[in-house]
Amino acid sequence: MSLVSSERPPIVIVSGLPRSGTSMMMKMLEAGGLPIYQDGLRQADDDNPKGYYEAEKVKDLALDASWLPAATGHGVKIVSSLLTYLPLDLRYKVIFMRREMTEILASQQAMLRRSGQPPGEVTDEVMSAKFSIHLRKIAKFLVERNIEVLEVNYGEVLADAAGQAARVGSFLGGFLDEAKMIQVVDKALYRQRS
């Protein structure tokens, strides 16, 4: 199913900091009926047991955005640090995932441990400050480019999946199957709570 609109359908971007709930939102959009732009190369694992919903091309967005028009009418996951490389001649709707910073940092550390990597040398306080500055810059960028944004809080999705699914559905034009979106929200995966 494609987005219903008199103008060209937007590219629906799910963004946020790493470990902010972007994969969960992608799964919700897929369940609701939005086609997903992904390549399936990154397989589900202990950190994201429901899948990552990524496309490798996204990582090179700063160098090559020629693939992006093919994502029109689809959901695509793009980490927040790459949003400034979006070409301005395309239409976007951004679902920006927010999560408590302490939970993001704890989840990132847990992911490092599971992958056998040493913990980061930067303290949580420094990393939190850097992320906060980054998020302010990205928010300013999106406003300046007149890109439509809906902020969705990870914890609020888990606490009120129906309410948040309704917000997302309304933002995207009302065609999503919100009941199916709600069904894929898995509270058991809320492992790093602040």
SSE map:
Layout lengths: L10 E6 L5 H11 L42 E3 L14 E7 L2 H14 L9 H21 L3 E6 H6 L1 H11 L6 H6 L11
Parallel strand pairs: 1-2, 1-3, 3-4
Could you give a quick summary of the protein structure above?
With 194 residues, the protein is an alpha/beta fold. 36% of the residues lie in helices and 11% in strands.
Write down the domain tally.
Answer: 1
**How are helices and strands ordered from N to C?**
EHEEHHEHHH
Bin the helical content. 25-40%
Which band does the percent of strand residues land in? 5-15%
Sketch the major β-sheet: 4 strands, parallel
* Number of distinct helices: 6
- If you compute it from the alpha carbons, what radius of gyration comes out, rounded to the nearest whole angstrom? 16 Å
Distance between the termini: 38 Å
Question: How many individual β-strands?
Answer: 4
Mean pLDDT: 87
Largest beta sheet: what is the strand line-up? Answer: 2-1-3-4
CATH class, named Alpha Beta
Give the name of the CATH superfamily.
Answer: P-loop containing nucleotide triphosphate hydrolases
In terms of per-residue confidence, which ranges show pLDDT below 50 for 5 or more consecutive residues?
Answer: 1-6
Please identify the oligomeric state: single chain
